[in-house]
């Protein structure tokens, strides 16, 4: 039954786009059908390398702050567990996020996530061939928008969850969110 499908909608911010780059922050929003359950994970990490200036301009994390954080390995088993138990792992440009997650998980000896993938970018392109499918442009179709200039992982996960609810279930709801807390593990 589609309304009982448990999904984790994920987003990762990274030090850059290359294969040697690392995850800076991770967020996941649990959905049951088209509705968020209230379970959320939002974490920040020391990537062990500086951020590319363009990546830092996108996500807003400074290297001096990131150096004080735990490494991804501290939370890898938790991330692997919650995503592996989902019916669906969803994200906008999901291949990007899963590529980074799988590389990080492999570094600690954990297997790849073997859950049904649902990419909102690909689903949007299938629904509207030829249209640009950035998260911001897709959200315009459902009346959603970003709160600011930077692309925080938690905000992007919630925005992708809104798009997932619309594409998969026909539900238009931006969940009324516009304030984003700090990552749960943020060290000042």
From TrEMBL:
Keywords: Exonuclease, Hydrolase, Nuclease
GO molecular-function term, one example from the UniProt record: exonuclease activity
Keyword Nuclease: yes
Keyword Nuclease set for record: yes
Matching SMART domains: EXOIII
InterPro entries the UniProt entry points to: Ribonucl_H, RNaseH-like_sf, RNaseH_sf
Ranges in coiled-coil conformation: none
Domain Exonuclease: 6-173
Protein name: 3'-5' exonuclease
Source lineage: Bacteria, Pseudomonadati, Pseudomonadota, Alphaproteobacteria, Hyphomicrobiales
